[in-house]
Structures are given as C-alpha cells and as structure tokens.
Amino acid sequence: MDKAQLRRGLHIAAGLIVVALAIGLYKAKSDAARTEAHVRQLEAQIAESEADLRALRAEIARAESPANIEVLAEEHLGVEIGSEAAALPEDSLARRLPAPEPEAGK
Amino acid sequence: MRPFGGTLSSELGVVAPTLEAAPARNRVRFLALAMFALLTLLAGRAVQLAFSGDPLAAPRGAAAAAIPRADIVDRNGALLVTTVRAFALTAAPALVWNPEETADALRGVFPDLDRATLVRRLGDRSRQLAFLHRGLSPEQREHALALGLGGIGFEAEDRRVYPNGALAAHALGFTDIDLNPLAGVERGLDGAIREAGAAGRAVTLSLDIRIQYALEGELDAAARAAGASGAAGVLLDGRTGEVLALASWPAFDPNEAGRASDNARRDRVAGDVHELGSTIKPFTLAMALQEEVTTTGELFDLSQRLEIEGAPIEDHEPIEGLATLRDILAQSSNIGAARLALRLGGARQRAYLERLGLTQPTRLQMGRNEAPLAPRARGRRDVAALGFGYGLAASPVALAGAYTVFVNGGARVEPTLIPRAPEEEIARTPVFSPQVARQMIAYLRAVVTDGTGAAADVPGLGVAGKTGTAEKPGGAQGYQEGRNFSSFAGVFPAANPRYIIVVTLDDTGEGASGGMVAAPVVARTLRRVAPMLGLSVAARAAE
ipTM of this model? Predict the structure, then answer.
C-alpha cells in the first residue's frame, strides 16, 4: 500500500468518523430535547403535586386547629374547655376514652 | 507525511523548496493540535457529565419548590399561613358570544359578582383579556368550567390561606390579592418570608397556637361581658422575650380581611397606645428603692389627699393608718406612688422610663409599632402623675417588655416574635438591681394575695402582678370617669418568675376596674395554659 492509498484510506476513515459524529450529535441533541421535554413535564407534575400537597396541608391544619380539637374533645371525651379535666395530664385521657371493642372470635 | 513535499520538484530537477513547505506543515500540525485539544475538552465534559450529573440542572430542582411567600408556622411547627394554588377567572371579550348571557351564567356560580360590571368587562372588545374574579379555589374553577362558556378562561395564581381562620389574625396579618403584605408579621417579616419562600423553607414564629387560642377565647368572653370596645392580651417568656401569644379583640378572619371593619383589623397589642394607669406603679416603687429615696421599712401616712400645683391627688379607697411600700402597691395608692415619684424627680424618672422601653416604639416584627406618647414632665404635677401611670401612653407589648425586668434580675429584654436559638445571646438592658427586682416580685405577689388583683390568683401557680384602671381622656375635666382602660400586668410563677402576661380592656364602664375585669381573664387563661408551659396548678375546690 503506497502513501497515496494510505492517505485516501485515512481520508475515508476520517470522513466516516465525521459522519458518525454528526449522526451521534444529532441523536444526542434529539435525545436531550426529548429528555428536556420530559423534565419539564415532570417539573410541571411536581409543581402540581406540591400545590396539591400545600392545599392538603392547609386542610390538615384546619382540621387540627384548636377550635376543631375543642369541639372533638367536647363531643368524644366530654372535656369542657377551661374545666379541671382540661388541665389534667395527657395520660389521664386514656381513662376517658371508650373501652376497646372485643376482638372477633374472643 | 509531507503534504507539500518536493516530489515534483525533484522530478523536474529543481532544488526542493523545503523552506517554503515548512510553514504549511506547521499550520497542519497546529490544526491537528487544536482539534485534539477540542476533542479532549469534549471528552472531559462527557466524563464530568457521566459522573457528576448536569450542574446546570441543580437550580431547576430548587425552583420547583419555590413559592412567592413562605409558609409560617408556630414554635411547634403548626401551620399558620400557607400559599396555595388559586385561579383567576378571565375573559377574552372578542370570543364572548353574548356578554349578558355569559354574565348571568357566571353569576349562577359566583353570585357575589356585580352583573353590570361583568357585562361591561365581557363586552369591552378593546381589551384582549379581562380579569373577572380572583382567588378561585380549584372547585370553583371546576364549576365555572362546567358552564362551557366561550371566551372564558383561567390564569393560575397564588393565594395566601390562614387555616386557623381568625386565630392569631392580628399577629399574622394579611396580604392583598397580589400577595403584597399589608399587616402583621406578613408585613413585619416580609423580606424574610419572601426569601424563605424562594428557598422552599418555612418561617417559624415564637407563638404557640394552643396558648394563643386560650388567650383569645378568654379575652373574647371577658370583652363581651364587660361591654368593652376593644381588648388586647400578650403572654411572653420574659427571660427570652419570645412572645407566646398576642391577641387583639375584636377579631377578624384574614382569609376575608377585605370584609372586616377597620376596627376589627386594628392591632391593639403593638399598634395602639393608652395611658396605662396603675400598672406603672411597680416601676415607681422600684425606681425609689433603686435610688434609695425610700426603704422597705419606711412607713407612710397616706390618709390625707395630696395637692400639687392646685391639682388634687387622692386614692379611690384611702389607706387608714400607716402604710408600707407593700401596702402602697397592694392597695394601689396614687398618693403613695406620687410621693415617691416626687422624691425621685423628673430627670431620674425619665431616665428609668427610657431604659424600660416605655418612651420609644417597640421593635416587634409587626406591620406597625405605634410610638408611645411620652412627653417630658414639665412640672411636679406631671412627675407625680407619671408615678401612677398618667401622662404616658404606651402599647400593651411595651408594658409587657418593661415587666421583663422582674424576671431577669432587673434587666429588660425586648419582646420578639422570632424564636430564640438555644445558645443565642440575648441583649439585656440593665435597669434595676437583682435585689430590687426580687423585692418587687414579693410586692407584686402581695397585690394578688392581699390587694386589688385577687381575681388573678391561680392556686398553686403563684401569680404576681398589678391591676390598672385608667380613666380615658376626654370630656370637660380632661378625663371621663365613666370610661376606663382596665388592665392587669402579671408575672408568674412567683417562686421562679419567668413568664409575663398583660391583659387590657378598652372603654369598660364605670366601676369596671382592672381587678374586676382584666384580672379574671389572667386567672382563667393561666389555668388553661399552665400545663402547656410545664407548670402545675392546684385542683379547684368542689363547686
């Protein structure tokens, strides 16, 4: 193989590499665009979920508000706010809870 | 390889111009090197991306969690304020088929909307987009969508929500529809709230929502019973200055702040000043002891009224016989306090009032801290009046801040709504000596056990404090006898003083003294909150 052939072979090889790189670049770019679109979609979903989560947290806070707890305490535990019972230690509440229901089969 | 070698030249028998080919070779080598360097850079970047991920993607992750205004939570993490997704109802007038019919259909879902305004906006084709209603919940949006109206759309926006409704409304404040802060900590901590929102963090306040609820409940009941026009209450940890509860009455719902009256929205804890009356007397006694113009053993004859520059000073119930400092405070003697103030003199009195923080606005993180009305005394009459709480108007939170001297060995701590870190150094302004502060606790306890503040007592807790009943300014005489500003400023537990409570009721009727209307609020509140503070109270006697 003389030098001219070698040079031609190298040119062809270089050309093929350039073509392969161009195809690779195109594929990488299209993959990146697809991934970016996917990321954007995921971000939108996350933002949506976070908005839902914040709304749910607000609902929980509303349900756990002292005013709501007061109503539940009066209804289920018979504790009147400001009464002696309201100042009792936490463990004494167990005595006021309804007796546990017997398990089936016993 | 010689791309421009001398083959042809040698064939023609010419001397090879190797010197001319050399620059070309160098250019090729340079090009090859440049390409090599470029490929190396690209390869390096590929390796970096493979092992460390895309550093540009990091801010994107944080941005997903960012909100315009941060959540606000209490000291135990209970959610007080949050930002939720909301929607604005919009219209593209060019696409609206019939403004009247569209307006009628929309009013079926939103009856509060004004029909004429709706029709005008829907028919205004000079505008591309018109906003019809703001702050809609997702459910309201669904209802509107179900109408299937042409030209009607929605824009996503954020809305501030206060899940506890009216609870702590004055402390939290509120924003307008565009989330601009208008009052409370929403305004006072605006920068911190925006910064924390961008970082996806919450802002923590020193408030305890359970204590807040108890204080507001008792304040509401008492204010209604006394026929007061307004009321305020503040409870703070006097050692750290952390405000645990801060209540104003009447209350309002910050979720619908626009519908509340100005009177209901008014913060009376930091934003309102009043002549405080006898709750100032403990400071007069402490000043006198500190300046050694009296002693704990001195006896006073207070049976005769005092007349200064033609103005009489008298006691509501004159003390018979000789009185001690303890009696002066327990029986709330104006004559005794005035005599001690006169011994001090105006200059020394003023210096103490300044160090007590009663002459400058407080620095509570609220939308507004009203400046006190504290003119300098112009004569003996003013000095005497200041001694028993007239001629100086300050806010309830300023009074609470001044009372911290009794739980900090005589030093004052500034009230704050920001929780202190465990090892945080707290700025203390020395005012009185620890001995004077201790002596004053004994006198303040006597007010509750043997004096005007008996209704504030909670057996087993050891409440110490002072009642205050100031006539409101106005009328031909300068003050109106039938209109009072009634208050109680307390410290507890007396055995190891730590907490401060101040309760005030505005515009109570004749005879409604602080001991009658404000002191019971303190007792009822403390009975409820003592377990939350890790304090025990004695069981009540059977009724």
Answer: 0.74
Active site residue B206: no
The fraction of chain A above a pLDDT of 70, given in percent, is 75
CB B367 within 8 A of CB B172: no
Tell me the pLDDT band of B14, cut-offs 50, 70 and 90. Answer: very low
Between CA B308 and CA B378 the distance in angstroms is 13
Which residue ranges make up each domain of chain A? 1-58, 65-96
Question: Of residues B22 and B178, which shows the higher confidence score?
Answer: B178
Report which secondary-structure segment, H or E, holds B87.
Answer: strand B79-91
pLDDT by residue (tens digit) across B129-170? 999 998 888 888 999 999 999 999 999 899 999 999 999 999
Chain A: residue whose CA lies nearest to B83 = A54
What's the rounded Cα separation, in Å, for the pair B261 and B253? 11
* DSSP codes, B134-171: EEE-HHHHHHHHTT--TTEEEEEEEEEE-TTTTTTHHH
Q: Note whether B528 contacts A61, CB cutoff 8 Å.
A: no
Residue A46's Cβ-count burial label (10 Å; 0-12, 13-18, 19+) is: middle
**Residues of chain B positioned with their CB less than 8 A from the CB of A51:** 84-85
CA separation for the pair A76, B276 (Å, rounded): 44
Helix axes B209-226, B519-529, angle to 10 degrees: 150
Among the listed residues B9, B206, B261, B278, the single catalytic one is B278
Q: Does B161 touch chain A (CB under 8 A)?
A: yes
CA B71/CA B48 separation, integer angstroms: 37
- Tell me, what DSSP letter sits at residue A2? -
CA distances A101 to A72, A78, A93, A96, A97, Å, are 20, 19, 18, 15, 12
Tokens of B523: 């007792």
Residue B67, pLDDT above cutoff 90: no
Closest-CA distance, B262 to chain A, in angstroms, reads 25
pLDDT average, residue stretch B234-243:
97
Asked whether the predicted pLDDT for residue B112 surpasses 80, the reply is yes
What mean pLDDT is reported for chain B?
Answer: 89
Spell out which residues of chain A touch residue B527, defining contact as CB-CB under 8 Å: 82, 87
Q: At residue A101, what is the residue type?
A: E
- Phi first, then psi, for residue B161 (nearest 5°) are -125, 135
Q: Which residue has the higher pLDDT, B453 or B481?
A: B453
Q: pLDDT (tens digit, 9 = 90+) per residue, B492-504?
A: 999 999 999 999 9
| Per-residue confidence (pLDDT) for residue B509, from 0 to 100 | 77
Task: Work out whether the CA dihedral B326, B329, B332, B333 comes out positive or negative.
Answer: positive
Residue B2: what pLDDT? 46
Nearest to A87 among B60, B64, B530 (CB): B530
Token pair listed for B105:
């259909």
Chain B contact probe: residue of A46, A48, A62, A74 with most B CBs at under 10 A: A62
pLDDT band at B4 (very low <50, low <70, confident <90, very high): very low
Q: Choose the closest CB to B540 out of A51, A60, A84.
A: A84
Within 8 A by CB and 6+ apart from B277, the residues are B388, B389, B390, B468, B469, B470, B485, B487, B514
Hey, which residues does B322 pair with through a beta bridge?
A: B301
DSSP 8-state symbol, B445: H
Cα B505 from Cα B484, distance rounded (Å): 8
